[in-house]
Amino acid sequence: MNTLMRLSPQLHHWRTYCIKQCAAAGTEAAARGKPNYEEFIGSRHQQAQRSIVVQVSSEKSYNELYNYCSRFGRIVTVQHYSVQHEDELHYMLLEYASAGEASAAISSSAYNAELSGSGVPVRSPFLWFRAPTGGAGRRGQAKLAANQKTLALHTVNGTRSLSHEALKELLRGAAGIDQQLNLLYEQTRLNELGVRMRFIAALQVEQAISGMFPDALAQPFGSSVNGFGKMGCDLDLILRFDGKTPGTDQDSQREASRLIYHTKENLSNGRSQTQRQMECIGDMLHLFLPGVCHVRRILQARVPIIKYHHEHLDLEIDLSMSNLTGFFMSELLYMFGEMDPRVRPLTFCVRRWAQSCGLTNPSPGRWITNFSLTCLVMFFLQQMRQPILPSIGAMVKAANTADIRVTEDGINCTFARDMERVGFQSRNTSSLSELLLQFFEFYSQFDFHNRAISLNEGRALAKPDHSAMYIVNPLEQLLNVSKNVSLEECERLRIEVRNAAWMLESEVENATLSESERREQSWGLLNLFKHPEKSVIRPNMFFKPRMVEVSDLFDKSQTLAPTPPPVNYKNPT
Ligand code: CTP
Ligand code: MG
Fold first, then answer.
1. Contact between 56 and 93 (Cβ < 8 Å)
2. Which of 72, 189, 381, 486 can bridge 105 by disulfide, Cβ–Cβ 3.0-4.6 Å?
3. Interval between CA 370 and ligand 1 midpoint (Å)
């Protein structure tokens, strides 16, 4: 029996998917102008293979580094960023024209016990550029002067995000709320360098274990790749030992081979086996991989994860090995974001608003998560009289055999990947600010007590249990995405959306402010993001005009959920 035939049909789909992804990436995307998710992921993975990250003494090292590294191949991009430790540490991300050239630069690197302390010599794309020695140094300097023109390739501090004050200033100077919404999105979303850095972090893990697991694949998912991530967002990573089977000649020879690898039998059930493997991978990352620190194992969660910090990338990473639906969910969100240019700016604003009034919190708990909030926005856009997004059900209906994806544990993640086949065209012409107000109005009146939100149907359903908030998980429909949300937090959300609707409605009056008045005072989104001392229900246009405090809504004997600590979004955790 050949290797592929021994695999379950589900695993076969996964492999087929990866083959397609690796093979098709890049070229097709360029031809059509807009890459689909698989092409986007595939081309970023290949880009990471062409890249190295070099620590330098400052951004002024650019010319010297460029000259030195050019000996291994043609450098096509150089991006600088810095990371604040005790001192400011500087790095350059270099992209070569081919993976072979990047590999040559890595292979040429030396180990130096003095520089790396007692570190174990490990091959990785993270390197250090040491000062030149003696005559070689002087010759290098002379050559350098002749190469000043190369600076055109260079970006300085590509991960520096706009300060809160600078963003406020920018929003104040906008022409209207619609422009504020677009500016907020453009200025706070994860940038090009941020995406590259996340794919290099993934590649480092993949390459580190490739000796024993040549088919391993580490795939970023979540907000790093679905288009809803902001600067500094965490990286969600899924590691598969059997993810990669490049569709090469060598691979078809392998399929036909009569020689089959002996493998270890699984000694325990799937979940405890995964937990043991994750423990082992966690130790390996912790002990050997440069940059990896603060490794924590969270193995009892529904989806066990290893959390760690990457100090060369200033990045928090959540690594899982059994969450393929999360990966396909990211594809759905990516597609929703691509379908209409209003989807992402609207979601960014809702996420920022929720953060500013303490509805979301970086630590897990009984509050709503960014993912659940994103689902609320998607649902709102589906259920409108003139919908902006199709239901997932419509996407499933339009799927063909090339769209079949079934995870290893049998979860069907099949939906049409080609939007033309779905045939959905929105006739909704509302502006972003109108949609934002409608979003707050919609959830002010939503019956969270009796209704569940279904993105599959694009309409509310009867709630199947007593959870305070029920959002049907689109790919695992027996699960509730917002199961963690407590009754108090759900009430707080209702209060905050009513306040926001009231606030935004009154902002219409500010539309008449002169330009100089706008520059001098807070208006539009800036008022929405103000952090009130205490939530109160404002008199508004939908409900009895009465001022109510949050505590009036609860039995006095019940204690309110503590307000999550304020979030410092300049330094996201
Ligand atoms: N996910 C899911 N079901 C859940 C939670 C998460 O399918 N109940 C998937 C989603 O694809 C989500 C991804 O896992 O995008 C990562 O989850 P999380 O990190 O919580 O959300 P992000 O979308 O990455 O948002 P954030 O920027 O807050 O990390
Ligand atoms: Mg995330």
1. no
2. 72
3. 7
Element (H, E) at 342: none
Contact 535, 551 (CB under 8 A): no
Taken in order 196, 197, 200, 205, the sign of the CA dihedral is negative
Q: Can you tell me the distance from the alpha carbon of 18 to that of 217, in angstroms, rounded to the nearest whole number? A: 9
Residue at 226: amino acid letter: N
User: How many of the other CB atoms lie within 10 Å of CB of 11?
Assistant: 17
ipTM of the complex: 0.99
CA of 222 from ligand 2 middle (Å) equals: 5
* Cβ contact 461:454 at 8 Å: yes
- The neighbour count for residue 151, using CB atoms within 10 Å, is 11
- Angstrom distances, CA of residue 431 to CA of 179, 269, 436: 10, 53, 9
User: Over 50: is that where the pLDDT of 276 sits?
Assistant: yes
| Cα-to-chain-centroid distance, residue 352 | 15
Go through 165-187 and write b for each residue having 16 or more CB atoms within 10 A of its CB, e for each that does not: eebeebbbebeebbbbbbbbbeb
Let me know: does 255 contact 3? Beta carbons within 8 Å: yes
Query: What separation in Å is there between the alpha carbon of 243 and the centre of ligand 2?
Result: 21
Of 571, 443, 437, whose CA–CA distance to 511 is shortest?
A: 437
User: With DSSP H G I counted as helix, E B as strand and the rest as coil, what are the percentages for the chain, rounded to 5?
Assistant: 45, 15, 40
Partners of 240 in the beta sheet?
217
Q: What is d(CA 320, CA 273) in angstroms, rounded to the nearest whole number?
A: 13
Average pLDDT over residues 190-200: 97
- Residues with Cβ within 8 Å of 175's Cβ and at least 6 positions away in sequence, in order, are none
On whether the CB atoms of residues 401 and 394 are closer than 8 A, the answer is no
In DSSP notation, 21-56 reads: HHHHTTHHHHHHSS--HHHHHHHHHHHHHTEEEEEE
Q: Is the separation of the CB atoms in 37 and 419 below 8 Å?
A: no
Find the 302 Cα to ligand 1 centroid distance in Å.
13
- DSSP string of 386-419? S-SS--HHHHHHT--GGG--B-TT--B----S-H
pLDDT at residue 536 is higher than 60:
no
Give me the mean pLDDT over the 460-469 stretch: 97
pLDDT digits (tens, 9 = 90+) for 151-168: 556 677 788 888 989 999
**Rounded distance between C-alpha atoms, residue 215 and residue 443, angstroms:** 46
Q: Which atom of ligand 1 is nearest to the CA of 328?
A: 11
The contacts of residue 306 (CB under 8 Å, 6+ apart) are 278, 281, 282, 285, 295, 296, 297, 298, 318, 319, 320
Q: What pLDDT digit, counting tens, does each position of 349-398 carry? A: 999 999 999 999 988 899 999 999 999 999 999 999 999 999 999 999 99
* Cα distances (Å, whole numbers) of residue 380 to 373, 422, 439, 487, 502: 11, 19, 7, 21, 18
Chain-centre distance for alpha carbon 61: 31
Ligand 1-lining residues (CB < 6 angstroms): 221-223, 226, 229, 233-234, 236, 325-326, 329-330, 369-371, 473, 481
- Ligand 1, pocket-test mutation among 315, 371, 471, most atoms within 8 A of CB: 371
Query: Contact at 8 Å (CB) between 3 and 260?
Result: yes
Report the amino acid identity of residue 468.
A
